[in-house]
What does this fold into?
Amino acid sequence: MGGTLDYDEAEARQEEAIYSTPAAVARRERVRDLFAPEPGDKVLSIGCGPGFEPAEIGWTVGNAGHVHGIDRSKAMLELARARCAPLPQVTLAQGNADDLPVADGSVDAAVAVQVFEYLESVDSALSELARVLRPGGSAVVCDADFSSLVWRSPNPERMARVLDAFDDHCPHPRLGSRLAPHLRGAGLTIDRVEPNAIVNTSLDDTFAAHLMAFIEDYAADHEASGQQRHRPGPMTSENRRPTGRPFSVSRSTATSFTSPRSGLSVPTTDCAVALTHTHNSIGFGPICRYPQCEVCTSSGTSVISGYRTTGG
It folds into this structure.
């Protein structure tokens, strides 16, 4: 979720943890497959975040190639510099996607994963991407349609309020399914479109677990539990609290559970589908901590459309 989000050090570490999960690793592998970097290629990583992407591409292009990563966040770039330090073929700089510090037609390929959904002007940023690609160069652009985000919950109305509030965390929460005309408008030719679904059936250090914490913090801070909503604009470290808090609790039918995130004791409730284990009722709904539960576990499913494009 690099984009134009501003991060402090703790928030950057939280994002780093998300990008370390198996689902995120698999997505990066799929992205590389789409544009197939080769030794000697020059590649631009837009919204490079904590540096996994430029480092992994750097190993592929080798010393004869070059990977240039940009990100707006200083905290993210600090993590990226540490990760890419052994790779002289990787350079990093602070910059914005809508004003790329890169010469015209100077890169063979460009990658932007969940960046454009966080920008106010998608078209200007895509025009910049097209500008820096060499003729015949390729790009992979992945953005989410957050309406595809699915979580198991026995309280669908409350869940809908939470996800509705989360839509406000970026300017274009549906961009993943609406990106094609923007790409064509920038003069890019779409070679293929592929969905990437992330499905987790447990909360053991998974993409869903980290995303759930991210959504909980945001929705709680923006009164998703039924109070007056307001539009905060793109999320920054200034308009998001550093720690989250539970904002809704189910009725207790069993024991209590102390949330490791908040230190608050909240009740647990019996499984909604009458399984024998219990669910922790913190955050925005009963959260299943039973790793093998594929029926009622909170399962984050985010369909992120990957567009492989070519320059003119």
